[in-house]
């Protein structure tokens, strides 16, 4: 049950703060305002003034003062007993909050798109482990739409997505840039094209594509929208590895991340096909629930990604 504004105002005016209660308990225990002041790290005049202010606030005398020291009045003894309960509760709250913070800071849940997870995340996580060896990291991979959903629902503390914009309901920052490339097997007719493809030809050709909801598909669909849109796919596959294998087998052209195709292109197993006058660049973003940048381990991983 909540408290009303009137009750909250009364608490503010009648209930001393924790520091004042701690000082009162020290006086009762030590029998001297001077010794209590020294223990709590304030001057004796400041301690005396704080006790008097507390007495005015409560409306009763709390201490009987004499040349031999100070001892609690009957009311003061009762207030001291209650003050001890308040301080014990405050310490329990502080310990509980610290435990929650420690539990939160001991784990990091990350969700990443397939390209980021396979080609960028390993290096980032190695650096993160060096910086925070005691933090357990779990990594889930999915397409960009699914990653965004996991971050929105709190299943992931930090997400990494591909695509032309930050997903709705999330905040984000660009951490890297990538480019899509059209690749084919060396025996494919496009591998021998010297002038490259026109965007209209690419748009009109059935391709082997990632599923809708993937960052790769989103960027390609948007890039080809003004050229008639993407033709119905020859095949839809759920992973970059499957796309590359299909291209290498001669099944047809595919569009994949340049990061993902680097080894196959360098080894001659795939050939990149130039597409004239078509921007297939894309940002790779870190995303988190809408609002300020995340704290704790998520902030540290975010800093590492942007520093590499």
TrEMBL record:
Q: Sorted alphabetically, which keywords does the UniProt record give? A: DNA-binding, Transcription, Transcription regulation
According to the entry, every stretch annotated as the HTH lysR-type domain falls at 16-73
- One Pfam annotation reads HTH_1
Q: Give coiled-coil spans as residue ranges.
A: none
GO terms, molecular function: DNA-binding transcription factor activity; transcription cis-regulatory region binding
Family of the protein in this entry = Belongs to the LysR transcriptional regulatory family.
Q: PANTHER family, from UniProt?
A: HTH-TYPE TRANSCRIPTIONAL REGULATOR (PTHR30126), HTH-TYPE TRANSCRIPTIONAL REGULATOR CYSL (PTHR30126:SF39)
The molecule here is called DNA-binding transcriptional LysR family regulator
Species name = Actinomadura viridis
């Amino acid at each position: 049950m909540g408290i009303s504004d009137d009750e909250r105002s009364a608490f503010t005016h009648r209930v001393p703060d924790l520091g004042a209660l701690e000082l009162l308990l020290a006086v009762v225990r030590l029998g001297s305002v001077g010794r209590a002041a020294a223990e709590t790290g304030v001057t004796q005049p400041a301690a005396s003034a704080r006790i008097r202010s507390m007495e005015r606030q409560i409306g009763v005398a709390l201490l009987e003062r004499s040349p031999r020291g100070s001892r609690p009045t009957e009311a003061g003894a009762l207030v001291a007993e209650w003050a001890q309960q308040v301080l014990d509760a405050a310490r329990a709250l502080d310990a509980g909050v610290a435990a929650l913070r420690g539990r939160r800071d001991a784990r990091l849940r990350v969700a990443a798109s397939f390209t980021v997870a396979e080609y960028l995340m390993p290096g980032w996580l190695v650096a993160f482990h060096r910086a925070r060896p005691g933090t357990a990291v779990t990594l889930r991979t999915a397409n960009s739409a699914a990653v965004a959903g996991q971050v929105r629902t709190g299943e992931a503390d930090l997400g990494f997505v591909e695509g032309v914009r930050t997903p709705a309901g999330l905040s984000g920052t660009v951490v890297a840039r990538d480019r899509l490339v059209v690749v084919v097997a060396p025996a494919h007719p496009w591998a021998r094209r010297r002038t490259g493809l026109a965007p209209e030809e690419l748009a009109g050709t059935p391709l082997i594509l990632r599923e809708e909801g993937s960052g790769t598909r989103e960027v390609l669909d948007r890039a080809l929208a003004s050229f008639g849109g993407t033709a119905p796919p020859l095949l839809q596959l759920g992973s970059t590895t499957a796309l590359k294998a299909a291209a290498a087998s001669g099944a047809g052209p595919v569009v994949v991340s340049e990061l993902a195709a680097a080894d196959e292109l360098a080894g001659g197993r795939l050939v990149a096909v130039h597409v004239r006058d078509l921007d297939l660049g894309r940002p790779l973003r870190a995303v988190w629930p809408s609002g300020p940048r995340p704290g704790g381990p998520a902030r540290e991983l975010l800093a590492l990604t942007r520093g590499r």
